[in-house]
Amino acid sequence: MDVELCLLALPGVQKDDLQTIFSHPQDLAQCEYSLSNLGVSKKNVDHGAAGAEIISKQNLRDAGVIGSARSAELYGLNILECNFQDASPNISRYLVLAITANIPNEYEKYKTSIVFGLEEGPGTLHKALVAFWKRDLNLTKIESRPNRGKPMRTLGTEKQFNYIFYVDFEASLAEIPTQNALKELEEIASFLRVLGCYPSTTI
Predict the structure, then answer these.
(1) Integer Cα distance of 182 and 184 in angstroms
(2) What backbone torsions phi and psi does residue 5 show, to the nearest 5 degrees?
(3) Does the reported pTM lie above 0.70?
(4) Structural domains of the chain in order of their starting residue, each with its CATH number
(5) 153 has which bridge partners?
(6) Inter-residue contact 83 to 34 (CB < 8 Å)
(7) What is the pLDDT of residues 89-135, one digit of tens each?
(8) Domain ACT: where (predicted)?
(9) Long-range pairs of 136-143 with CB within 8 A, sequence gap ≥ 24
(10) 30-82 pLDDT, tens digit each
């Protein structure tokens, strides 16, 4: 989904008045270059609308928020700049969660999304990916992120980052190759979690 992020503030407030910007960490990251030009501090909130509410209720005239045009309408804020994000189009992916499992059928193509962690060591990521290669499972996405729960670890006198890996691949959980690949990955990974299995046309 193409997400347009706006810079919002109370009526009468100009960009030069801003000292703090509220928003969700992901939105702040997507506007990092634009924010650096403003020279402001950043403050994390659950979502842009929450930041807009704080500014409105506390009448903060030295603060702004990155959010939607709808948030400006709801909380009486002005839009100082539209398309404030660093890149356009600004593509964000959202997951739709369900209580009941979506049972794959043979007439649709499916994707599966997983997240896993690996202990540091030579070739560990290669070994993890081989589990998919051996079974001809096509990876459509692989992304690494620092492990927020345990971002660093000490190995002797060195400090190293801990990473987790998000992977999407073209197959359903009902397929035997998928089950075998995940079983093999589970033996290598420090943890493994299946985030979802869904028709590839939906996300």
Answers:
(1) 5
(2) -100, 135
(3) no
(4) 6-81 (3.40.190.10), 110-199 (3.30.70.260)
(5) 160
(6) no
(7) 877 776 666 676 666 666 678 999 999 998 777 788 999 999 999 99
(8) 113-199
(9) 136/177, 137/169, 137/170, 137/171, 137/177, 137/178, 137/181, 138/169, 138/170, 138/171, 139/167, 139/168, 139/169, 140/111, 140/168, 140/169, 140/170, 141/166, 141/167, 141/168, 142/166, 142/167, 142/168, 143/167
(10) 999 999 999 999 999 999 999 999 999 999 999 999 999 999 999 999 999 99
Backbone angles phi, psi at 183, to 5 degrees: -65, -40
Tell me the one-letter amino acid at 29.
A
Q: How confident is the model at residue 158 (pLDDT cuts 50, 70, 90)?
A: low
Residue 22 CA to residue 80 CA, distance in Å, equals: 14
- 89 prior amide bond cis, ω within 30: yes
- What is residue 9's three-state secondary structure? strand
